[in-house]
Amino acid sequence: MNYDEAVGKSSVEFGDMAPQAFLLGLLSAFDNRYQARADALFREITWKQFFAIICINLCKEPPTLNELSDVLGTSHQNVRQILLKLEKKGFIAMMADEKDRRKQRILVTEKCRDFCEKNDSQSKEVIACIFRGVDEESLMLTIHTIMKMERNLSEL
Known about the structure:
about 65% helix, single chain, about 160 residues, mainly alpha, two-stranded antiparallel ribbon, Arc Repressor Mutant, subunit A
């Protein structure tokens, strides 16, 4: 495989880099570029804050800090910082768990729901643009591959 052609950058020399190492680097670089673009889309919050909101909304019940950390795949400290900023902006609220008062549940606010509704069509347009020309078979193969990588990562 010619990595220079794959990336389209003649100023980069990949030599005999294994495709696995190249893919990990590509995923990291894509994540950085996507975060920068997504941060520019939303004036009120960052991409990481928006992703936290998406993950909160995916949970069947308002998650705890530990549960949200697992879904986001990052440390409790990072999630706590994200949540503090979202709470300060009025996007989330922390409520004591009804069954276990030691636990705090994370709830999205009406302001957050309004923000998500207002930005839904723009988010869908961005996703459509990013995946333009990617057929469903390729997409499903990519999802399967990354999920397998995720399971393998948990074994380290």
